[in-house]
Specification:
The complex is a heterodimer of chains A (239) and B (377). Chain A has 239 residues and is of the alpha/beta class. Chain A is 47% helix and 13% strand. Chain A is built from 7 helices and 7 strands, in the order βαβαβαβαβαβααβ. In chain A, helix 1 crosses helix 7 and helix 3 runs parallel beside helix 4. The longest helix of chain A has 31 residues. Chain A is globular, with a radius of gyration of 17 Å. By secondary structure, chain B is of the alpha/beta class. Chain B has 7 helices and 20 strands. In chain B, the strands form 4 sheets. A 10-stranded mixed sheet of chain B has the order 16-14-13-4-15-17-19-2-3-20. Chain B has a 6-stranded antiparallel β-barrel with strand order 6-7-8-11-10-9. In chain B, a hairpin with a 2-residue loop joins strand 9 and strand 10. Chain B is globular and about 60 Å long. Classes of the chains: A alpha/beta (239), B alpha/beta (377). Chains A and B meet through strand 3, helix 3 and helix 4 of A and helix 1, helix 2, strand 13 and helix 4 of B.
């Protein structure tokens, strides 16, 4: 436990599993106030009980859920300094070539991995800008993937959606830097998570990164940015 | 004047009527707003997001169908959402003009209200029987979830389609503490804010729990606006000081900003930062200490919003504004057009130069540019 994030208001989507759950614990351990979002009420309530974070039930891929999610986040935290758009969809599971990908599965990947982060960030942008005016250096972290860059076969829906998210991050960062809001895309690496198991069922877990390790790296990135008064030390895309 | 009937009307193409410190009127467009702002000016907006504050339900003792519109709170603190001031309506919804709504049943202290997933108890009945205090019986988290998922935005019959919650949030909307949209803030887009910065001006915000604008009952409406909690960040107070020091203007986006800043004003034109509750009414006898100009929606004579404008300009000038806006078909209410009104030059109270009307070439409204102007009174 440290207190380096005392007073920091952190939101994590997809907070009940894999990297999201590790991020919830990591930010709590460093003293932040944390609210997380996930779809299933039982799991949300269980995670909230186990961690002490504030759980919000909602599906960020659904347009109608975004404002109710934002209202509950702001009701719990009063504002936002860090938003981690972590919730992701693989698209079709098991993974299939693009030519075998149903349009509906592609749409789910885009809704979850691109439109969801766009909408939630937009709904919270007023709060992020208010945090910036108060000198709190707000950051939005969009969780990306090396599949956003490398054209892996069978990763079409996921890779294309993550590429869009990564580019959205670049453009939005360029636009919002004058408001004092930074938007970064982070590739956390191949981790031993339920999502990775769904994508690559026969992978050897011992070759994969622990999600706790990636969570620590992301928290370190934010910590170093918050210490950096020049506000220049945050790369837009990090691997 | 006619109301704007669709939230889509606010997307960048509203009109902007400008009144300068001498009472001269000109007609511009919403997108021209940055051109009215000068280096060292400070634009102050209310960044309250709108709470979905209309709750349908049942008055348990009688079984009567009711609508409860949350209308006030004594704090902005997120955990203080158990108790609200509210106005109770009878059956029906926004499609019926409020003044034609059936009356709700008489409510008594201790009555239970079932409002979707929320259970509430009437914990006070004010002097007016439709103005009550309600206390929700649940945890703070569940109250927020129920409001977020079950509440609907308060709206009025002149907008026939049900509003989505995002229709009621300004671009800068932050904490969800307003009961109706702080609608002058619809003026601001992120592009506008970028342009303000380019002109050497700054944006600052306050958070003010804007209350409801109308109940359909004259006696109740006479009580509006209710006391409204607000928060002024220390960064905003500092920018106001800096602006005054550099002889820039403080331009308030909306009546709630005027109410908060003037409530927090010290005699020297600086403001106290932090939490406060705006209790005063601003009107013709108010001496403004902080705000130099206001952007507002177009309001009809007699409304509390209009009364506030009388602190900025004489009745003579405002009468001309009203006639001009009416003649040119400006749209009223929260999704309508805008006015930008500079505070009349002080030191010469009551003396107003004969107004002239200028029309921009881009003005989309045809018609003669000149209007007859009243001379003096």
């Amino acid at each position: 436990m440290t207190d380096e994030f005392t007073g920091l208001r952190v939101v994590i989507t997809g907070g009940t599993s894999g990297l999201g759950r590790a991020l919830v614990r990591e930010f709590l351990d460093r003293g932040a106030q944390v609210a997380f979002v996930a779809r299933h009420r039982e799991v949300v309530e269980q995670t909230a009980r186990e961690t002490g974070a504030h759980g919000v039930v909602g599906d960020i891929s659904r347009k109608d859920d975004i404002h109710p999610i934002a209202i509950q986040i702001l009701g719990a935290l009063g504002g936002v300094d860090v938003l981690v758009n972590n919730a992701s969809s693989l698209g079709p599971v098991p993974l299939v070539p693009l030519a075998d990908t149903e349009c509906e599965d592609f749409e789910v990947a885009l809704a979850t991995n691109v439109l969801g982060p766009f909408r939630l960030t937009k709904a919270l942008l007023g709060s992020l800008a208010a945090a910036a005016r108060e000198g709190r250096q707000p950051v939005v972290v969009n969780i990306s993937s090396d599949a956003a860059v490398t054209p892996y076969a069978n990763w079409g829906a996921y890779g294309a959606s993550k590429a869009a998210l990564q580019h959205l991050s670049r453009i939005w960062d360029a636009e919002l830097i004058e408001e004092g809001i930074r938007i970064v895309a982070v590739d956390p690496g191949d981790m031993d998570t339920p999502m990775h198991a769904a994508a690559v069922p026969d992978a050897d877990p011992s070759t994969l990164k622990r999600p706790e390790q990636s969570a620590r790296e992301i928290a370190d990135l934010i910590a170093s940015y918050l210490r950096d008064l020049t506000r220049s030390g945050l790369p837009v895309v990090t691997a | 004047m006619n109301p704007a009937t669709s939230p889509a009307a606010r997307v960048d193409d509203a009109r902007l009527l400008m009144v300068d410190e001498h009472g001269n009127v000109s007609h511009l467009a919403q997108v021209d707003f940055p051109s009215l702002v000068r280096a060292n000016d400070l634009v102050v907006a209310n960044d309250a997001a709108t709470l979905p504050a209309s709750l349908r339900g049942v008055h348990a003792p009688t079984g009567a169908v009711i609508e409860v519109r949350l209308a006030g709170r004594d704090s902005l603190r997120p955990e203080q959402v158990t108790r609200f001031t509210a106005v109770i309506f009878g059956a029906g919804d926004f499609r019926t003009p409020t003044e034609h709504r059936p009356l709700p049943p008489a409510v008594r202290l201790g009555d239970a209200l079932r409002l979707g997933p929320l259970r509430a108890v009437v914990t006070h009945v004010h002097a007016h029987p439709r103005l009550i205090e309600v206390t929700f019986e649940d945890t703070v988290a569940r109250i927020w979830e129920a409001l977020a998922r079950y509440g609907r935005p308060i709206q009025y019959a002149y907008v026939p389609e049900p509003l989505a919650i995002w229709d009621t949030w300004t671009r800068i909307a932050g904490r969800p503490v307003a009961f109706e949209a702080p609608s002058a803030g619809f003026l601001l887009t992120w592009r506008t804010i970028h342009e303000l910065r380019g002109r050497g001006a700054r944006l600052a915000t306050i958070t003010h729990a804007a209350g409801i604008s109308s109940t359909g009952d004259d006696q109740l409406d006479a009580l509006l606006p209710l006391d409204e909690p607000y928060f002024i960040p220390s960064s905003t107070a500092a920018l106001i000081d800096q602006t005054k020091g550099r002889r820039g203007r403080v331009i308030a986006i909306g009546t709630t900003v005027v109410r908060a800043l003037e409530h927090a004003a010290r005699d020297d034109g600086s403001v106290r930062s932090g939490d406060g509750i705006a209790t005063e009414r601003i009107g013709p006898s108010t001496s403004l200490h902080v705000v130099d100009a206001i952007v507002s929606g177009v309001h009809e004579v007699g409304s509390s919003h209009y009364e506030l404008l009388r602190a900025f300009q004489t009745d003579d000038v405002l009468g001309r504004v009203d006639a001009e806006a009416d003649r040119r078909g400006y749209l009223t209410h929260e999704f309508g057009d805008f006015v930008f009104i500079e505070r009349r030059r002080t030191g010469r109270p009551g003396l107003v130069s004969p107004g002239t009307v200028q029309t921009k070439a881009a003005d989309r409204v045809s018609g003669a540019a000149a209007v007859r102007t009243a001379s003096g009174r």
